[in-house]
Amino acid sequence: MSGPFDGKSDLTDAPRVAGARLRPRDAATLIVVRRDGPEPCVLMGRRAKGHVFMASKWVFPGGRVDRTDFRAPAASELDPVVEGRLTRGARPSLARALALAAVRETFEETGLLLATPAPARSAAGPWREFLAQGALPDLAALSYVARAITPPGRARRFDARFFMAEAGSLISLERAPDCGELDEIDWIPLSRTGEFDLPAITKFVLSEVRARMVEPSRAIPFVRFVRGRHDITYLD
User: Which domains does the chain have, with CATH numbers?
Assistant: First the structure.
């Protein structure tokens, strides 16, 4: 396969760890697309140099699923088509938790809320700051873009689902203070993403984002490591 991901490139650019057979952890990522300018832009940030996983790379906001994501409240639920596609590889409770993790992590890393206004709530753990903003996650705004599993032998392994949403579904484009995991945060024009230091999988997902702008219902790519090389299958 040719293009931004050729099946030979490292999926994550994470360092190899000899003998490691880590089980992938469920994770979620959100691509927010902004279309109020001369061309579409995507929300991205640069990871700090000290990170073991994708250090100094420009990435979409995201992270692993927390146990609190399984019971967090939401203003709306997943679109039935999106939920149906997610549950082909995850039980319904995990599918919802993945969506909530994508929204939560985006707030933690960028200070932006994919949500609708609601009375502020008290909560403990990772959802405390989000719910204190007076907002509830808007899961209906999410579409499902891709799934990828980090190859064996890496310092971190994730079974990541990539979601996409329009910036118009954000409560505001003004950012609340972020957690500092991303050194820089910016809206990057799609035509300029090639100028940045991106992981191979991010380049691949960006190609899917462009394709979905033309064909929103296209099949979902599933990227994984099979018999010593990367394999891409498509889920209808």
Answer: 25-235 (3.90.79.10)
